[in-house]
Write a structure and sequence with these properties.
The chain is α/β, with parallel strands linked by helices. The chain is 41% helix and 14% strand. The protein has helices at residues 2-30, 35-53, 61-85, 93-126, 161-172, 177-183, 218-227, 305-308, 316-329, 342-352; strands spanning 133-135, 145-151, 193-200, 234-235, 252-257, 271-277, 280-289, 336-338, 385-387, 394-396, 398-400, 404-406. A hairpin with a 3-residue loop joins strand 11 and strand 12. Helix 2 packs antiparallel against helix 3.
């Protein structure tokens, strides 16, 4: 059915193009009824003006040059073909048809560019930029159980500030006001539970190999090694001495704090995803946090560029709560998130040049906590930081449907 539809559309376009070529040729040969010629010139000039004027938007300068050059060359092609078609002596036969087809082809290219940029310019200026959070039919974790793993000898000291505050977060999580606020938000997340917390003091077997995803590589290997019991681990200081689960709960969320010797390349400050797991059709929900936090709030932080680059207000539990909530509300895709607003998409295409119109869809950070991050379309002009409980560890703000960002 789709093939037949495209075939019909193609036939109509082809007939329309051939008809216009015939009309242009007849006008030139008979020296009358110049309506098509005048219209083609007017549309070509107007399109060229739109294309060149669109360069006021911030996009890579080389695409500005290429786009403007193609537009000017196409305008010259339209003019050159029409001048030759209407010149003296009058071209006849196949030459007149070729010139008419050339004028129409250059004009069509120019009008397509002009129409595309006119739509993008209009959307970038006039369309609403407010994202709309919604549920897309996918799974939601109703009772997520948080497990934490701290990987590497840097996490094994008697007092590690980031580890200690993350342990306090996990301990207070089930009865916290933050958890209650999430449960009241209508996402379908009813409660949080605290699972185990362990430190794996072993250095990574392949230091320097970056963690680029949660489904495979160092990240997945470490989670499997710890939860399968093949690595000797110790309970996190300050956390109950909990044994490894014989079977991982279906709604488990594993937060792995990477070793500082494993470069973080999961994206953003922290990220969540899933890894294949026996008995779990969608996989094991997991979130990855950078090993740079192992030096957070210690004098050693200034000696390590990755730690020194951590955002000043991004406390470990800020990143942890952000990813925990997004994992619970969108664990395997098609959960709670906002689609990219038309204005954002149009501005992205203008900033990144023509190839962005034909490549993969741009990544839009539109999950429930992303929408309240600095620089996101729904964010204000300041960082919104909440608390797990009054005076408790920091938490990230999140978007509640119909209410906007709350802490």
């Amino acid at each position: 059915m789709t093939g037949a539809l495209w075939g019909a559309v193609g036939a109509v376009v082809a007939l329309g193009a051939l008809g216009n070529v015939w009309l242009l040729r007849q006008e030139a040969l008979q020296r009358r009824r110049r309506v098509n010629t005048v219209a083609l010139v007017a549309l070509s000039v107007g399109s060229a003006v739109i294309v060149v004027a669109s360069s006021v938007y911030a996009r890579p300068w080389w695409w500005d040059v290429v786009t403007a050059a193609v537009a000017i060359a196409s305008l010259g092609g339209v003019g050159g073909c029409l001048r030759a078609l209407w010149g003296t002596p009058r071209p006849r036969g196949w030459r007149s048809g070729l010139l008419a087809a050339g004028a129409l082809g250059f004009g069509a290219l120019l009008m397509a560019m002009g129409a595309t940029l006119a739509v993008l310019d209009g959307a970038a200026i006039a369309a609403s930029g407010q994202p709309r959070l919604g549920w897309h039919g996918g799974a939601v974790l109703e009772h997520p159980v948080l497990y934490q793993i701290f990987w590497g000898p840097q996490w094994a000291g008697p007092s590690v500030p980031a580890r200690d505050v993350a342990v306090a977060f996990q301990r207070q999580l089930p009865t916290s006001r933050w958890a209650a606020a999430v449960a009241r938000s209508g996402f379908g997340v009813e409660s949080f539970a605290a699972g185990g917390c362990w430190v794996d003091p072993a250095p990574p077997p392949h230091p320097g190999v970056p963690a680029t995803g949660t489904a495979s590589g160092p990240f997945a290997d470490e989670v499997r090694a710890v939860l399968s019991g093949t690595r000797p681990v110790a309970p996190c200081p300050g956390a109950p001495a909990t044994s490894l689960p014989a079977a991982v709960p279906a709604e488990a969320v594993v937060a792995l704090w990477l070793s500082p010797d494993v470069p973080y390349a999961l994206g953003g400050l922290a990220a969540h995803g899933a890894l294949p797991w026996p008995g779990l059709p969608h996989g094991l929900a997991a979130t990855g946090l950078p090993g740079a936090y192992a030096w957070w709030h210690t004098p050693a932080c200034r000696l390590h560029p990755a730690c020194d680059a951590l955002p000043p207000l991004a406390a470990p539990t800020y990143a942890l709560s952000h990813e925990l909530l997004e994992t619970a509300t969108n664990p395997f895709g098609h959960g709670w998130y906002a689609n990219a607003p038309l204005q954002w998409t149009a501005r992205y295409a203008l900033r990144h040049g023509p190839p962005s119109l034909f490549g993969p869809a741009p990544v839009y950070l539109g999950e429930v906590a992303d929408l309240c991050e600095p620089g996101a379309p729904a964010a204000g002009d300041r960082v919104l930081v909440g608390r797990l409980d009054p005076g408790g560890p920091p938490t990230a703000a999140f978007d509640r449907p119909g209410l906007g960002c709350v802490t």
